Amino acid sequence: RARTWCAGLALWVCGSQGRSYRFMSPHGHGSDDDEAAVTAISNEEWCSWLHAELRACPAYATHGALLDECCAIAARWRTRFWGRKALWNRMRRGSRLAKELAEAAPVLERARLEAQSVKLEGGARVVVIDLCSGFGYMAMFLSELLPPDKVERIVLVDKAWARHGVERRPHHIDPAHISDPGWPIRLSTSHADLKTPSDRRSLLRAFLSRGCPAMLLGVHLCGTLSLRAVDLFNDSPSFFFLGLKPCCLPPAFFAQRGDVFGSANGHCFAAKAVAVAGKWQRGKWVGGASRQELQRKFAVWVDNLSRCVECDVEGGGGEGGEEAGGAGRGVVAVEQHRVQSLWLLNDFIFCSRPWAALAPRSATSAAHAAGPEASGTLAAVPAPNRSNGAGVSEARRAAVVANFDEARREAKRARRAGRRGDAERAAAERRRAAREGR
Ligand SMILES: C[S@@+](CC[C@H](N)C(=O)[O-])C[C@H]1O[C@@H](n2cnc3c(N)ncnc32)[C@H](O)[C@@H]1O
């Protein structure tokens, strides 16, 4: 078999049978014209096409067995939804299915292991929350991969779903594929804007108020959405697993107004350390920040996000831990899995911790709902209300930003000094000492 490219369309030449089929560009999203060719092929042929797409993804090298399994699952979907052409067209959408599946593979793999190994008591079953689900491929695959005897439901959370009881508008995602009754584990949608604190609280109240065991997943969460995912995880001790794949860095305005980012566990860092100018456009980075700056800041971003994660369960390890339903410490790790051909965005944050059958803290404590300042985690005078919601005091914010500025100046001096000879370095040091009145 050979594959050639022509004017944005992939031509798949089935050499052995002397037939050729036209498929969409892997960078496009398909059109009705393409569908004529696609519908002409058999399930087996479609499956081999999908398989070839997956084999071409960088994730195949490390997650090949899982992707093969998912390929067989997707082939079953084709049979299942075949009679509903418009719906199937939305589901298969060119190479999008293959791309999103491959990029979510490490989260799918870990989520399955966690669900299989979690110890449940008293008939408790797991709820899975898929943040910023988009169309919902990851949840759909999870429904087929997770053990149905242990997992009760998977909730797809996105601001693009219509609110329940509200008529769906054109900008909302059509949930017809999600509400289909054939999923092995029940799927449901939930509208929530993760940047709105009351939406986050309502989300936890709706699904975790009784402290049922839960896993929190989020793939391709842009900017501060990743921080909001960490906030949710920290807020609810009944989450025993976090699988997060951060996406774009926060935009430059956070740095311009001197923000800090942080979480209720007290960790915070300067927005300047991670915010960048520019944006992704069709898989290409357009804007101010250089590739080097992006790479450096992305590593800092992921590292700080992971430090914001609370992996010790309330009462864990100490007295009362057992009674609280959980015990001991968890573990948080940043893992690199090459899932995209891009030079960036291959970092995953995973946290496993014991399950504590407790309601979300924000549902039980007004002080916690008001942020770490009010709960006494951080120092007293509150900073102006900033959208990152870390609740850091003004004094601490100023200190964190000043420390960052000083560290950056020091690093610059060290770089310059490294380029100079000994004599020049000594002279520069004398000038600096004189300037600073030493
Ligand atoms: C890059 S897509 C990720 C979709 C999917 N997880 C994936 O991996 O392909 C980002 C999704 O986040 C959703 N989103 C953006 N801002 C949001 C917010 N403030 N609250 C909830 N969802 C949001 C968008 O509607 C979109 O579906």
From TrEMBL:
Biased composition (Basic and acidic residues): 419-438
Domain of life where this protein originates: Eukaryota
Classification via SUPFAM superfamilies: S-adenosyl-L-methionine-dependent methyltransferases (SSF53335)
Residue ranges of the region described as Disordered: 376-395, 408-438
Protein name: Methyltransferase domain-containing protein
